[in-house]
Amino acid sequence: MQFVPKTIREIQPEILPVKESPPELVTFDVGGMKCAGCAKAVERQLMQYSGVISACVNLAVEVATVECQPGAVDAEALAKKLTDNGFPSQSRLGENQQEAEAATIERRRQEIRQQIKQLTIALILIILSGLGHVLGTKAPILSNIWFHWGLATLALLLPGRPIIVDGCRSLWRNAPNMNTLVALGAVTAYTASNAALLFPRMGWECFFDEPVMLLGFILLGKTLEQQARRRAASALQALIALQPAKARLVDFKLPSLDLRSEELPLNSTSAVYDPQYIEIPADRVRVGEWLQVFPGEKIPVDGEVCEGKTTIDESMLTGESMPVLKQPGDTVAAGTINKSGAVVMRATRTGKETTVAQMVALVQAAQTRKAPIQNLADTVAGYFVYGVMGISVLTFLFWYFAGTHIWPSVLLGHGAMDMGHGAMNMGNELPIIHYQSPLLLSLKLAIAVLVIACPCALGLATPTAILVGSGIGAERGLLIRGGDVLERVHQLDTVVFDKTGTLTTGNLTLTDYLPIFQNSELDLNLDINGGNRQDACSTIDGVFGRVDSKLLQIAAAVERGACHPIAAAILLEAQQQGLPLLAAEDFCTEPGFGVSALVDGRRVFAGNAEWMKEQGVAVATELSGSCKGKTAVYVASGGVLLGVIGLKDTLRLDAKAAVERLRGMGLRVMMLTGDTASAAATTAQQLDLAAADVLAGVRPEGKARAIATLQAQGCKVAVVGDGINDAPALAQADVGIGLHCGTDVAVETAQIVLMRNALMDVVESIELGRATFNKIRQNLFWAFAYNTLGIPVAAGILLPATGILLSPAAAGAFMAFSSVSVVTNSLLLRRGFRA
After folding, report:
1. SS3 letters for 408-429?
2. In Å, what is the CA distance from 582 to each residue of 552, 571, 595?
3. Which DSSP string do the residues of 350-402 spell out, in sequence order?
4. How do residues 451-490 score in pLDDT, each as one tens digit?
5. Which of 21, 69, 141, 567 places its Cα 20 to 30 Å from the Cα of 119?
6. Is it the case that residue 47 has pLDDT exceeding 70?
């Protein structure tokens, strides 16, 4: 035998791509930030750390969110780096959320108390300084220049010390902030006044009241701003406070847990109030454990009522004020309040998986995500303080070397009468000077430029509006994921609704049973597999009594393997008729088409007409017309159509009103459904939707393509669905709105999550998004306009023509109240969304 060698191809091992792990998110509480420049400096420092992908810092809530490579970043080391660079930071990893938030709230309260204390001292100094001007020679002590020197010195050493120290440290670290500008202005004014005091022959005036009033106004503005920011964050703090601290762990098998009573008073002596239980922290409850909840207590974790009946106040999660009846089998959410009866529940979700914990996470994430419109402000903020310092130097140089020579009149009629402490009761008989020296005027204008500039307004414009808007949404069960979503909401021009379960109730009811074979003898002799008809007939005939019941029973057996409103309706009807379910196995679901299963060894299909055609089953046109305006489920086996079942859905009560409101807002409203064209047309007619606005017979994977087609036409599209079945379309849309997600709030594909089962919440969420984004635009406009107009005025642009000179104290007052105005404007958002 001769062997013929063959060349065997070398088999190369298949290299499978390794799926990358998702980025890790780390959150930090960051202190010491005074303005947008500080926030930008923190972002810059975070981005310099190895392993950090991106960083986002929120000035309003003093939180930094860092996206990093998994396992590549030591959170504690990163926090220490920020702390060493002047921004005291603490990682939130592994901390109890309530304890961390409580510590943050307490820290902010201490800061506010300290600011109020400093403000009180500053106001006393301002009053004493003002009395010296008002009383003049009537109160020699109060008008003495050395007395005013003492007031200015105390202002710098007491209330102004933290500002000056922080400003100098920030400048030393090459990260100057608002405090740097204020410190430079106050110290320069104090130094110039000391020079005038010590060298009176120079002819300068003393303006010791400038640093006193400047620091007082700055502290007043900071205090008001802190109070407003705390009010803006109150909704999130209230949401975090909902999370219960304790849970009552019980053994459900104990006879003492007999909860037949509907309502038990708190002082009841029933055995239900004396069970054998263990009280444990709520965050240590495990899934499957049994918990007891008395009236007036919070539900500790998400779960299911197992025994007892009660009403639950869910207003803190959904915004719905009316308590909801709960009985065995109903779900309850952590943080809601048990109002009436004692119940035993089984834990289904614990810790970070509970509804309230996910809501808190969504709201916190929303508050750290910036709107793209903020990018310009962030870019400006990074160089703002340096730019202001440069403008201040240029202002001084211009007026000293050129301005006072071009317009010599600006040296007359300023300051001597208003700020001329140098001539009062110094023990020197000096004439009152009615002009200013070029050096002093240039210095005043340079100081005014320093203190009028407000980087805070730029930094607070976006986060405060998002803070208030997300808080309003959380109170009403509307969770908007961030500033970028708000900007897209503002741009929307089209809203596309899913039909079943969104525009309609999703509770289908059976209206028709239509067997194909009117002759029952023919039907009974039918072999649904097309083989031995007599065997099949005997099997089926032993189960069914009427032709329509046979059809329903076969359909119910197949639909038992599906999780869909159609399947639920068919199974419910079979149960109500008392029909026993046939044995079925090997279920197969084809999304958008139907379901099949082996029933008594025969493959049976239940689905739409398109799927019947794919299975080689002919559907007569007359048969399709008999279910016009309804959802038709065809049942077939072995290529033979057994019959059709007609189902009808009802429109939601608020669907028409919601559609009309959206149209009134200038939005195009469309309907997208996998249902038949006739069923979709019936719903569209009830909603007054044009045929062009109805997309029917679209499979789940086709829905995303349909949305992409609209986007290709230039439409900005929002899709409203249940957040699970419509995931591809929600992900494709510019804004995905998950309706009635309930305890499934963490729907990754939805940018807006609605907690209530109400279509009007879609309208309200878009209105809230538009209103919040408008506030962002107003705030940014004010911040840029203030600085664009204020800095030139402080630099003396109006001085030659009008004689208007902005003193450093007045400039400081404008700066202090500019940031307050931004926060206050954001708080005004609540006026349009009162309960």
Report:
1. HHHHECCCHHHHCHHHCCCCCC
2. 11, 12, 16
3. -GGGSHHHHHHHHHHHHHHSPPTTHHHHHHHHHHHHHHHHHHHHHHHHHIIII
4. 898 888 888 888 889 888 888 888 888 888 888 898 899 9
5. 141
6. yes
Which residue among the candidates 29, 498, 726, 761 is catalytic per the annotation?
498
**What gap in Å lies between CA 593 and CA 655, rounded to an integer?**
26
Nearest one of 431, 391, 432 to 415, comparing CA atoms: 432
Q: What digits encode the pLDDT tens for the residues 238-249?
A: 777 777 888 888
Give the position of tokens 């991106």: 54
Averaged pLDDT for residues 609-615? 85
Which long-range contacts (C-beta less than 8 Å, at least 24 apart) are formed by 314-318?
A: 316/238, 316/239, 316/242, 317/242, 317/355, 317/356, 317/359, 317/477, 317/755, 318/477, 318/755, 318/756
Decide if 496 contacts 719 (C-beta within 8 A): yes
Q: Which residue has the tokens 């007891």?
A: 292
What is residue 217's predicted lDDT score, i.e. its pLDDT?
87
Other residues' Cβ atoms within 10 Å of the Cβ of residue 348: 16
* Residue 793 identity: V
Going across the sheet that includes 89-91, the strands are 52-58, 63-68, 24-30, 89-91
Tokens in use for 544? 């069914």
Q: Are 413 and 436 in contact (CB under 8 A)?
A: no
- CA dist., res. 618 & res. 616, Å (int): 6
Output the pLDDT for position 400.
93
E-assigned strands of 569-690? 584-590, 594-599, 602-607, 631-637, 640-648, 668-672
Residue type, 88: P
Cβ-in-10-Å burial (0-12, 13-18, 19+) of 31 comes to middle
Give CA–CA dist 338/342, Å, rounded. 8
144/197 Cα distance (integer angstroms): 12
**Distance from C-alpha of 288 to C-alpha of 305, rounded to nearest angstrom:** 12
DSSP 88: -
DSSP state, residue 499 = I
Question: Could you give the percent of the chain with pLDDT greater than 90?
Answer: 22
Of 606, 585, 66, whose CA–CA distance to 365 is shortest? 66
Report which residue type is found at 189. A
SS3 at position 455: helix
Compute the Cα dihedral for 269, 270, 276, 282 and give only its sign: negative
Give the number of other Cβ atoms within 10 Å of residue 830's Cβ: 17
Instruction: Give CA–CA dist 332/347, Å, rounded.
Output: 9
Query: How many CB atoms lie under 10 A from the CB of residue 372?
Result: 10
Annotated catalytic residue 258: no
DSSP one-letter string for 240-258? HHTS-SEEEEE-TT-TT--
- Match 């200038």 to its residue by tokens: 666
d(CA 103, CA 212): 34
Above 80 in pLDDT, residue 309? yes
Q: Where are the beta strands (DSSP E) in 4-62?
A: 24-30, 52-58
Rounded to the nearest angstrom, the gap between the alpha carbon of residue 658 and the centroid of all alpha carbons in its chain is 23
CA dist 94 and 493 (Å) reads 43
* pLDDT (tens digit per residue) in 73-109: 888 889 898 988 888 888 876 555 566 666 777 777 8
Arithmetic mean of pLDDT, 253-273: 43
Which amino acid makes up residue 258? D
